[in-house]
Design goal:
The protein is of the alpha+beta class. It has four domains: 89 residues, 2-Layer Sandwich (Potassium Channel Kv1.1, Chain A); 57 residues; 76 residues, Alpha Horseshoe (Serine Threonine Protein Phosphatase 5, Tetratricopeptide repeat); 107 residues, Kelch-type beta propeller (Neuraminidase, 6 Propeller), CATH 2.120.10.80. 41% of the residues lie in helices and 19% in strands. A four-stranded antiparallel sheet has the order 4-5-6-7, with no helix packed on it. A four-stranded antiparallel sheet has the order 8-9-10-11, with no helix packed on it. Helix 2 crosses helix 3 and helix 7 runs parallel beside helix 9. The longest helix has 14 residues.
Length: 366
Amino acid sequence: GGLTDLWNNAKHTDVRIYVEDRLFACHRVVLASMSAYFDAMFTSDMKETREGVVYLKNMKAHVFDMILKYIYKGETSEMFPEFAVDVLYASSLLQIVSLQELCEKYFSDNLTLNSCLEIWRLSCTMHCINLKDNAWTFFMDNFVEVSHTDEFLEMSKDELLLAINDDNMNVENEELVCDAVLRWFEHDRKRVYYLLEIFHNLRLALMSYAYIDCITRRKAYIADNSECSELLEQMKHVSARAEIVYGQPHIFREHGKAACTLSNDIYVSGGTSSFGSAETRFVRFETKRNRWEYCLAMREPRCYHELVTVGHYIYTIGGFAPEDAVSNVERYDTIQKEWTRIGNLAIPVGGMSATALNGIIFVFGG
């Protein structure tokens, strides 16, 4: 009875809808009550409204038949699981919110290691926010297991970067993330073009010295990339040893470094190398992501100098390089990420203290 009887017997229909080679006789008010798409169409002065004929493109006839059974009867038995993707697409296109939510719940309840990435991509395309979040959360909760699937190996570079930068990833250690990344590279050797970019986004500082040394020696495509090899060689000196993980006083083994804070991040520069020479190194610890990253090196090596912040600038002042005191001052722009030499101290000095107040830098002692 009711709507079902009206639809089954095509009583009082006032709109004809053509999908592929099939004709569906429907009721405007019924469609408009369930679909924002049809509601907008039938309340406008469109040709379809005047003539009572609608041609639906990008829709399969058998799927639209299921949609109508849902609208008129509340029936969903034919949809799942075989036509779940088609129905989700159709409900998204026709803006049938209740059916879209039903499809999203079905997919969310049936996520697997092999399907979560495919479902995530699908939800991105169809702007299904809840399903997108659920699928991605499943991926992050099961990252190591998913990283062994074909779907993971087929991820794009941007998708991989999104994953390895997610703070909610559930892994025992960062070496497991790097293992997954290496499998991704080895699945398609053309991807070595992205090697440096992706390794810059790995949390190398939280990996062990032994692990970094191992992949540097055993992976030829890493050894053949001079920039990546240099990055890994540098990161051996800031890898996850006890003094870093547990916040011991000396983050690096070198002496004569300078440090400052800006926007809750820690910046460290210079110092002496194991050979006693001054360094140009400049690194940042991102507190939100709990990771070290290399920034653009200073123009000149120096040790026993000072770092001072004013606005979004970091000033490196004085110091020794390698034995003589330095007079020049460099400024790092944290937005443009570049160094500029801006002047000299009245007297070359090292081993001093410095601070800033109201935009003015004060230097003491040395």
